[in-house]
Amino acid sequence: MKTLTGAQMMCEALIAEGVDVMFGYPGGAIMPFYHALPEYPQLRHILVRHEQAAGHAAEGYARTSGKVGVCVATSGPGATNLVTAIADAMMDSIPIVAITGQVVTSLIGKDGFQETDVTGITQPITKHNYLVTDVRDLPRVFKEAFHIARTGRPGPVLIDVAKDTQNARGVFEYPATVDLPGYKPNYDGNRRQIKEAANLLNQAKKPLIMAGHGILLGHASTELREFAEKTGIPVITTLLGISCIPEDHPLSLGMPGMHGWVHVNRAIQECDVLFTIGARFDDRVTGKLDSFARNAKIIHVDIDPAEVGKNVVTAVPIVGDAKRVLEHLTEIANPNDHSEWVNHIREVQATRSKRQRDPESAMFTPHHVYAEFTRILQGEFRVCTDVGQHQMWAAQLIEYMKPHTHITSGGLGTMGFALPAAMGVQVACPNEEVWAIAGDGGFQMNLQELATVVQESLPLKICIINNGYLGMVRQWQELFHERRYSATPMWSPDFIKLADAYGIPGVRVERAEDVAEAIHQARATNGPFLIEFVVEREVNVYPMVAPGASISDMFEDPSEVEIEDVVAVK
Amino acid sequence: MKHTLVALLRDQPGVLNRSVSLFRRRGFNIESLTVGHTETAGISRMTLVIDGDTTSVEQVIKQLYKLIDVLKVSDVTQDPNVTRDLLLVKVYAPPAKRSELMQLADIFGAKIVDVVPDAMMIELSGSPEQLDRFVDLIRPFGIREMVRTGCVAMTRGASTISGPYQSQEFRAA
């Protein structure tokens, strides 16, 4: 019988799982795998410049395509560099498989060169992980890993393969099924519970839908829209839920939480039934828990039973897949009209959000940039943001029309995410316009990836919102730490010259009136392009809920409130 | 309130580590934890006693279920069950005290498993409360060394916690 090396088996398994691209970086312990790789030209390998970027690129790929993203690294430092991206994928439920090489079996536990206990290190940040030291286990482990990553609540799975196992030979038979008696995700929500949810919603006077990442992960955007339209219930979208419903939809209200809109947070506080689906009541959404949605009965739909009842008391818990539950619910819920309630929220919106959307200021602020984005791009783009002020503004101010067009690091809040994740998005959607938006701080955390962008000819549009500060931290220092700007002022290199060194054209914009032209120039360029927007240095993201405060206490201007009154926990 | 949970685990590398690391990370307060073989090869059984309110115990159960190699978790606190802890205790026992100690051991159904001129080792299995009472009684004699295994528990009656994983073998027997 024909035998294969472990490394060949790994490639065969990837092909069997429908993988066509992976992001990685070779090194000693993963060399047998890289030796086999050229025998499989259908497997595209993208060489990054730092393993963290391989992880984020795999995430970006998964976040857009819905397929499992794959990243590869060697043992020791290669694997530890993946850790941040794996933790990011864990927090945001992103299906990725990370493959790492491990020192030869006889050296494991002996502190061999480039040995780290990677399964130990990643245990709390993976959905599951494996150390493979027997070549006979490889097919089963790969089958299970991809199955676990993509089913139920998706998440990262790591496979650590000893170098001698990659070299060992064995018969390759890829299993058709998995045998995991302890892993049986529940997709169909309990019918009685769904009926009860429908009853609650039918009787509600001021119902509200809070839609989260689960809608996008479960490909349930259409079902969400149909449900909202039939029942007339308005929809709010969490940071990671953004783009699950077109933002110009009459029932779409916007984002809740710390930097959400006043009208949205107020709707949460006023609603009588809060139907939450695919969201997990993160502290950035709820603010002070005991004053969150205090007039509402909460219905919580989630595929992960452990999320239900974790943070808030739930009147109707439903464990199931967003798509299936919504289909069923739409079938049995009464058609309804809540325009009076929606209009009430819209009135608040008209008085409270206008200033944020349309900057009157003579200063050049990020608001000008985002307003032009929305006007010029007309929803035909995918945006990857980093973490910080620019991220919140991008969530607030750009209008997203299609699912999976807003990609960001939500749960972990990983600076340096945008550029490498955007590479993955661009690889998943080679013919679409992809924008990486980062601050001056975050961009410099992974700027080495400009080289990958060039080597792989990725036509990414890169945008740096440069305010010369670690802006979000500076904002907190201004508001809560007596304006002591400790370690937040930041010098940066000449980004345009830097881009030029990589062969990437770019332009610096210092006035609001030049924004549109720069965006047009970037779009007209056949290939990557970088724009640096040098904006007003000390602009804050508003509205805002102070950390630990109730979402009832939003402020849009620090002079409106006594900060001490709204800060519960710093 | 104290809860007794019983969990069935697949014998895979790291499964105990995963469970314990989960308790640490989520801040669950574990009073005792034991693991051992079961009637089925490849499946271990973990008994843990945890102190917490209903909500946090529910979280422990749900989080345990998220581990791929955890097959079943059951809170047996409210079910009629047999809970046993095993005690080995070495007591200071000069000849003049021996008979008194032996009487106490006898009342509790404990066994003397080792005797030397000035000490003896006593073995006792029973409910944790029973063991507490016994230890309190012999403490005045002078305890030199003591170890308890932590609880194992099993519900009374013919039904089992394992369900389909061993029902075939159960039928065969």
Describe what this molecule looks like in 3D:
The complex is a heterodimer of chains A (570) and B (173). In chain A, α11 packs antiparallel against α14. Chain A starts with a strand and ends with a helix. In chain A, the strands form 5 sheets. Chain A has a 6-stranded parallel sheet with strand order 3-2-4-5-7-6, sandwiched between helices. Chain A has a 6-stranded parallel sheet with strand order 11-10-9-12-13-14, sandwiched between helices. Chain A is built from 24 helices and 22 strands. The relative contact order of chain B is 0.20. In chain B, strands 5, 6, 7, 8 and 9 form a 5-stranded antiparallel sheet that branches. A 4-stranded antiparallel sheet of chain B has the order 2-3-1-4. At the A-B interface, loops of A face α1, α2 and β4 of B.
Tell me the radius of gyration of chain B.
19 Å
* Global outline of chain B: elongated
State the low-pLDDT regions of chain A, or none: none
N- to C-terminal distance of chain A: 65 Å
Spans of chain B of at least 5 consecutive residues whose pLDDT stays below 50 are: 165-173
Q: Please describe the biggest sheet of chain A, giving its number of strands, its sense, and whether it closes into a barrel.
A: 6 strands, parallel
Number of helices of chain A: 24
Distance between the termini of chain B: 38 Å
Overall average pLDDT of chain B = 91
* DSSP helix fraction of chain B: 25-40%
Oligomer: heterodimer
Helix content of chain A: 25-40%
The global form of chain A is globular
The fraction of residues in strands of chain A falls at 15-25%
Broad structural category of chain A: alpha/beta
Largest interface: A-B, 17 and 22 residues
